[in-house]
Amino acid sequence: MENINKPKEEVKNEEKPQLSRFKKKEEYPEIEKKEEPLTKREKELLQRIERLESVANKAGLSKFDTMHAEKKEKVVNLNMIDGKVIISWNNMPKNRVEKSPKTGHWEEEQFVEVVYEDGETETMPYVVFVRRYSHLKAKVKKEIVNRALNKEKFGRYSFEVETEDGKEYKLGSKFVN
């Protein structure tokens, strides 16, 4: 702060503080890096890797990586209502949606029949079903491709799944996620 009022020439000529209290580079001991010689087997492996990388293309490397990648577990969402897992639902027993000629408003009368894990069935308005269900994550243990007869009823696949609490369920792909 003292130098603010001084002319520029005086500031340049002023002595700088001595840095003698700091050690010089020569005073520190030098640490030598010791490189251990590679074994014959390690040298061969390095040469082989360099050779393969020099001729490989991105598509080949990508294919190799996908073939040797760690497989991820499939996880699906099961639908739940009031703590009960929904195994399936049937086609709507009542499905009437039409525009009223008197009022001009759309009128809906849609019901869905839900089948729970314990075999209990419940018929409820579709709007209530859509608003009340929640998801429960489950790991896929087994995936089965359905034949033509079951494809319409359950979807293309059937799954054997296990929830975090250890319960197992069998259900079609139409009834997950």
Strand order of the largest sheet: 4-3-2-1-5-6-7
How would you name the oligomeric state of the polypeptide chains in this document?
Answer: single chain
Could you name the ranges where pLDDT drops below 50 across 5 or more consecutive residues? none
Tally of alpha and pi helices: 5
Give the integer mean of the pLDDT values.
80
**Spatial extent as radius of gyration:** 37 Å
Helical proportion, percent range: 25-40%
State the secondary-structure class: alpha+beta
What proportion strand? 35-45%
Any idea how many domains?
A: 2
Number of strands: 7
Shape: elongated
Largest sheet: 7 strands, antiparallel
Quote the distance from N terminus to C terminus. 70 Å
Question: Would you summarize the structure shown here?
Answer:
A hairpin with a 2-residue loop joins strand 1 and strand 2. The chain has helices spanning 8-13, 40-55, 58-67, 126-132, 148-154, and strands at 75-81, 84-99, 106-116, 121-125, 134-145, 157-163, 168-172. With 177 residues, it is α+β, with helices and mostly antiparallel strands.
